[in-house]
Specification:
With about 270 residues, the protein is an alpha/beta fold. The chain has one domain: Rossmann fold. It has 8 helices and 10 strands. Strand 1, helix 2 and strand 2 form a beta-alpha-beta unit. It starts with 5 loop residues before the first helix and ends with a helix.
């Protein structure tokens, strides 16, 4: 996501994963949008039977491959391709420098991140690949998450859990927003059970983004499903978002310091 920091992404994904891994709820996973494999050390600390990365940008794919090879992680695998809703080749926008994690198949909107290069990559649908018996899918594809889900087709129902990056605003042209993503997963029998939000004060006021865990409805009772849906309605409400903003003390302290500095300069 254009506005999210890499350190936040790692902390958020790991926080959600720990909830599943510590309870032995997940034995295998795919990570779609691997970037440079920042989570490899974390994943390898658990006794997972299979970890599969998908990373379309050649240089980043090579970094993941080298880590797997040097650490001799025989249960890890990486594919040099993107997942999407159809098999094709397309150019990806490659973000520059430390913002390279914001690279996307979608055209970026104006921001403080530059995209000076494009790279022709391969896109495959997940259901066209010979991969079975995976418990969890981690999707971090900079606004392309819905296309990945569509390409899973019937295989989507094979996952026990999904961890999906979301945004309530379009950081990229034609990016899927949270309400669309939520509706699609609800129609395909998944319920959100945990949400981590990051407020974006810089340009989008109370707009927010983050990651969410979804569970396959086959693995949850109807009562729990109702409870989670009621909870989600509250935490998605404008009232709750305003409460988050009010309680974001670090942001308000930062703004106060900036205000004091301006006063000092004027005097």
């Amino acid at each position: 996501m254009i506005m999210s920091g890499l350190n936040y992404k790692m902390a958020s994904t790991e926080h959600l994963l720990k909830k599943l891994l510590h309870k032995n709820m997940v034995n295998s996973l795919i990570h779609v949008g691997g970037h440079k494999g920042e989570e490899i050390e974390f994943y390898s600390s658990y006794d997972l039977s299979k970890v599969i990365y998908f990373e379309p940008i050649k240089a980043f794919y090579q970094e993941i491959y080298n880590q797997i090879d040097s650490k001799r992680l025989n249960n890890f695998q990486v594919f040099n391709l993107a997942l999407g809703s159809e098999n094709k080749k397309e150019e990806i926008y490659v973000a520059d420098g430390n913002s390279s994690g914001s690279s996307s198949l979608l055209e970026p909107r104006p921001s403080d991140i530059s995209f000076s290069q494009k790279e022709l990559i391969e896109i495959r649908t997940y259901d066209s690949m010979d991969i079975m018996n995976i418990d969890l899918a981690v999707l971090d594809t900079q606004g392309y998450e819905l296309e990945v889900l569509k390409g899973m087709n019937e295989k989507l129902s094979q996952f026990k859990y999904l961890i999906v990056e979301f945004s309530v605003f379009e950081g990229y042209l034609k990016q899927v927003v949270f309400t669309e993503l939520e509706a699609y997963l609800s129609r395909h029998s998944f319920t959100r059970i945990k949400t981590i939000r990051k407020l974006n004060h810089k340009k989008y006021n109370d707009s927010n983004y983050g990651d969410a865990i979804y569970i396959n409805n086959e693995d949850i009772s109807n009562l729990k499903k109702v409870i989670y849906n009621m909870k989600n309605k509250f935490i998605d409400s404008r009232l709750f978002i305003r409460l988050l903003i009010i309680s974001d003390f670090s942001f308000h302290i930062k703004k106060l310091k900036e205000f004091i500095k301006k006063l000092i300069r004027k005097n």
